[in-house]
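RECORD TYPE: protein structure
NAME: DUF192 domain-containing protein
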Amino acid sequence: MLRDSLCRDLTGQFVGCDERPDRATCSFHDEPCCMRAGDVIQLEVERVDDVWSTLFHRCERHAVHGFPREHSLCGTPQVLVATRLEPTGAYLPDTNEYVPDALTVGAIDIVDVSPADEGLRPHY
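PREDICTED:
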């Protein structure tokens, strides 16, 4: 069930950047890190309003073995997945322009799960 919903919501999702839709960037580099079609990327995703959304992109250099505790929130199901970038095309979020070689999420492998009843609790 988890895998099915992840595949439904993430496969084919645009992961490039509007300026260079054929490149993706890592969220954990101080300098630009460009990933291309065929590169493996990890995505930290969370389920909000019954849809899986991407929080962070990780290149192979910044890949982790488990969902990072510092990003895990109690009350929110979160998953770390690995995928290969595919140039299958997408509509750009800012302009709605279709780019035929824009990078998207390919087949998904689940690396780790951070259940909703675990993780950091908000301080009120």
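COMMENT: The two ends are 33 Å apart (CA to CA).
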